Amino acid sequence: MFILHPGSGIPLYRQVVEQVRRLVASGQLAEGAALPSVRELALEHAVNPMTISKAYSQLEAEGLLQRHRGKPMTVAGGQGSQASPSRRVRQIEPQALQLVAAARQLDLSPADLAALIDRSWRKKP
Amino acid sequence: MFILHPGSGIPLYRQVVEQVRRLVASGQLAEGAALPSVRELALEHAVNPMTISKAYSQLEAEGLLQRHRGKPMTVAGGQGSQASPSRRVRQIEPQALQLVAAARQLDLSPADLAALIDRSWRKKP
Amino acid sequence: MFILHPGSGIPLYRQVVEQVRRLVASGQLAEGAALPSVRELALEHAVNPMTISKAYSQLEAEGLLQRHRGKPMTVAGGQGSQASPSRRVRQIEPQALQLVAAARQLDLSPADLAALIDRSWRKKP
Amino acid sequence: MFILHPGSGIPLYRQVVEQVRRLVASGQLAEGAALPSVRELALEHAVNPMTISKAYSQLEAEGLLQRHRGKPMTVAGGQGSQASPSRRVRQIEPQALQLVAAARQLDLSPADLAALIDRSWRKKP
DNA sequence: GTGGTCTAGACCACA
DNA sequence: GTGGTCTAGACCACA
């Protein structure tokens, strides 16, 4: 469900936050759906529970998740089932721009990059 | 020459390191070329000189840059003028994979992502 | 464990780097052993934590030390318990050569130097 | 006459200062003897003349050298021809202590170190 | 508790 | 002018 890259330089808790946001925006985590418990996730990714907890707390503060005493957190109401395509696209626009900037610094052509993206889609379906 | 994103979560000095690596791989910084001075870069990006210096030192340790007492650092020898396309592509493979993973989590289609990438190329040429 | 000479002209962080290398080579810091924490060492030697941190980071880049998020650094694997005598001797060969060169410039005899070394061994056992 | 180690961490001008002090203490540079010119030394060691000049100035301030308009600097009076053995030995005591400390950290025996010193004497006679 | 990043600022060595 | 070292101090991420 989540993929964490500890060596990427991006804080682990931020990686979790962003991934939950995406899964909610896409409807893969629908309104009311339960999230994996802090412990479970922490174990699975060999990470301290506090790291996951910090991510969940931030998402709760944003109003995206809801806490329930003694029960797993759930996706809060008011999201609809799936955000509009343009809203979803906007969530990865910064990364796309940075990737293109990197490709430019590597003197790669749009075709080179398109081919790389294509291969990446096929890699882990 | 460099673009820094202070809010991206990635340490500034790492952003510099990666960008220098790309510019060298692409030949835009050729063997023997002098790099912008630490102070110059620091001023331009409103960043502390030590942050730039840390990036340069790491690149020197890697053997990509060379120090010259009292003079600007230069791109070390043994780089050739431009790395092979496959070597260059490999430098952004991780980012491409992460972008695709994000697109998947957003339930975007390959076509959606391709369109986004296309638009990104046109944005700041 | 470490002895720092602030007035020696050699940067403090380099002194730390070299001493860790020696303690690892001799097996006094064995594979897996935890190093004193940055703050601890900094306090003990009345030195800024960043100075120690810089030394540790360099040793990590060399592969001699390993980072563990939130925990103390340790000596990396692949060192064996003690380097061979010849490898250990090689680590101070440059200093030995410089000392002999200095003795020559002072017109001291090999016996004079040997006596000095002898006395030095006895000084702080 | 002088040996400079740019990579040793010790500032070049300090290396010059210390070596002049030793050559004077040993009588190899006697009272009134002329020193190599700043330019000459700078060229020979591929170093900026200001670096040598700084060393000479410091030695002048110490009273060890004397400046003469248009002529090479000379060793100042009042040194006698050779300092006493104990005074000369004292000049390298700190280095000897550091070498012994390093040997201890490498878990070398006094015999190991003595052998290394012996070999070092023979290396560049 | 652990290490990491960044800043503002002083001062040094070298060209 | 160039880069390097060190400090004091704030704040962050992770266990």
Your description of this structure?
Four copies of one chain form a homotetramer. In chain A, a hairpin with a 2-residue loop joins strand 1 (65-68) and strand 2 (71-75). The mean pLDDT of chain A is 94. The longest helix of chain A is centred in the last third of the chain and has 21 residues, at 85-105. Chain A has helices at residues 12-25, 38-44, 49-61, 85-105, 110-123; strands at 65-68, 71-75. Helix content of chain A is 55%, strand content 7%. The first copy, chain A, is mainly α. Chains in contact: A-B, C-D. The interface between A and B is large, with 47 and 47 residues.
Keyphrases for this structure?
about 120 residues; globular; two-stranded antiparallel ribbon; Arc Repressor Mutant, subunit A; DNA-binding; homotetramer; about 55% helix; 2 domains; mainly alpha; about 5% strand
